[in-house]
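From the shared-data thread, chain only:
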Amino acid sequence: MMVTIQVRDFDAAVAWYRDVLGLAVLGTEPGEFCLLGAGRGSTTIALATDHPDRIPDHPGVGWTPNLGVSDFDAVVDRLRAAGVVFDAEEEGADEGYRLVRVRDPEGNPIGISPA
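Structure, as C-alpha cells:
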C-alpha cells in the first residue's frame, strides 16, 4: 500500500520524514516526488507536489497513516527529543494497544505504534 501526501514545502517534508521519522528514501524526483519506506513490508509513503489543488485548507482531514515501529519507546523518546509536536499523550495501553500521533511540518497527523 502507498499513501500519497501532497505537500507545500517538498524539501522540508522530505527532510522531516527521512531525518525525524527515520524513513528510508526509496526514490525521488527532486522537488516533485519522494517515495519513502519504513524498512519492512510493502507500505510506503509518497510525498508529492504535483496536485496542489488536493492540499486541504486544514491538514490531515479524514486520514491518519500509522507507522509500526520495532522499538516504540525508543522512537517516541527520539521524537520528543527532536521537538516533534505530539497530538496527545500515548493512548490505548489499557485497551491492549499503544499509539501516539505526531504532526509533520505541514500539520498532517502520523500515527506511531509498535509493529
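The first strand starts at residue 2 and ends at 6.
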